[in-house]
Amino acid sequence: MRSVEDILALLGGAEAAAGQLKVGTEAVRKWRQSRSIPAKHWPVILAATGLSLADLTSAPTGATAPSQDTTMPNLPPDGATACLVLDDGSVFWGLGIGAHGTQVAEICFNTAMTGYQETLTDPSYAGQIINFTFPHIGNVGTNVEDMEGATPAARGLIIKQDVTEPANYRATLHLQEFLKRHNIPGISGVDTRALTARIRDGGAPNGVLSFPADGRFDVDALLAQAKAWPGLEGMDLAKEVTARQSYQWDETVWSWGKGFGKQTAPTHKVVAIDFGAKRNILRCLADAGCAVTVLPATATAEEILREKPDGVFLSNGPGDPAATAVYAVPAIQGVLEAEVPIFGICLGHQLLARALGAQTYKLERGHRGANQPVQDLTTGKVEITSQNHGFAVDAKSLPAGVEVTHVSLFDGSNEGIAAPAKHAFSVQYHPEASPGPSDSHYLFHRFVGMMDKAQGKNPAA
């Protein structure tokens, strides 16, 4: 197998290679750093250099070695018990963890150094297999308090190091056992940096994670399954993770030595539309004084308004907002017409934007991690935020009367909007999470202030 440096030399050097492959020199630098060139560039390389496919790939020599050889036999390398097959033909071998099984999904990466249980149980990860860039996953075990949903939503996980014994006083269950109980397969021993570089440079691929009980693999069949999966665009997943019936929520946020609290004297009545709501969002609403009634994602405007809410919250959730908008947008527009204040997070932000007349689009690789800088344009302050989304609001499509309130300092994408005349605002990121650790908690109180103002109260009183 030729090295990246050999290939660049044959192309005439880094700058010449960047020109021929129509990428920036920064991309070439990253290829050198990761020692791999994305497969989508191979046809141009083969044509320009006269190399063969064998010069660009190699058979794996161990469980941690990735391979892009789609003609390889269906036998795993020594010691490997699981594999990940991407829709471009890339094959990563490793050790199976968790439950035996096969899952097809979009492959994404998350850069957070903590909170893997919250990530796995966040309903927004439905339809995805998560590649964790932090190598030590499993080191704090799992517990019932850190569940963000009733059951895990992610379809699988990919990690670098073997899962170790938990070393945390809050742990009640080993991650391995947690995965088995919830029927989630995983793979360890993968070069997660190389996989992350592949997603970064080529976008989030579809893939199949296979951990067969009998140790037998049909790589060609797995590749066909990955290619056949339709992907998240056009997919409505909110219906899969939403509550099946309405319920009340009065649990407040966790505190050291006390655990979760219980609401005593709520001041506002809020209806939360569950498109895949994280539990800690509901806790933050309750902590801010909101008596929360949770309704399913398919609730109509009539059903929402029947609760006589002071405000309506639109939750996070998975899938394509354009697909969920088919039934969600009419309901949201009915609430807007009734002049009831609205606050949205993540998918709720995207759905509010579409209800106001804007468009959404799929990001090439998404934002997933706990170190995402966002600027609040209304105050000028910068927040360190937690994010998990593969779609975004097209700020250029926002109609008159809707303003941009927050922007990503990573790529300039939209992170928040407000429609003051409609008593509505939303953010793309997760203010209930704690990377800052409390940089964004003010948004829940901003929502309460908006409800006070709509009712003619003095928010400062």
Automatic annotation (TrEMBL):
Sites where the protein binds L-glutamine: 124, 317, 319, 347, 350, 388, 390-391
Keyword flag Amino-acid biosynthesis: yes
GO molecular function terms listed in the Swiss-Prot or TrEMBL record: carbamoyl-phosphate synthase (glutamine-hydrolyzing) activity
EC numbers, comma separated: 6.3.5.5
InterPro entries: Anth_synth/Amidotransfase (IPR050472), CarbamoylP_synth_ssu (IPR006274), CarbamoylP_synth_ssu_N (IPR002474), CarbP_synth_ssu_N_sf (IPR036480), Class_I_gatase-like (IPR029062), CPSase_GATase1 (IPR035686), GATASE (IPR017926), Lambda_DNA-bd_dom_sf (IPR010982)
Catalytic activity of the protein: hydrogencarbonate + L-glutamine + 2 ATP + H2O = carbamoyl phosphate + L-glutamate + 2 ADP + phosphate + 2 H(+); L-glutamine + H2O = L-glutamate + NH4(+)
PROSITE patterns (alphabetical): GATASE_TYPE_1
CDD domains (alphabetical): GATase1_CPSase
Keyword set includes Transferase: no
NCBIfam families, per the entry: carphisopro, CPSaseIIsmall, PRK12838.1
Protein family (similarity comment): Belongs to the CarA family.
Biological role: Small subunit of the glutamine-dependent carbamoyl phosphate synthetase (CPSase). CPSase catalyzes the formation of carbamoyl phosphate from the ammonia moiety of glutamine, carbonate, and phosphate donated by ATP, constituting the first step of 2 biosynthetic pathways, one leading to arginine and/or urea and the other to pyrimidine nucleotides. The small subunit (glutamine amidotransferase) binds and cleaves glutamine to supply the large subunit with the substrate ammonia.
Protein name (record): Carbamoyl phosphate synthase small chain
Organism of provenance: Roseococcus pinisoli
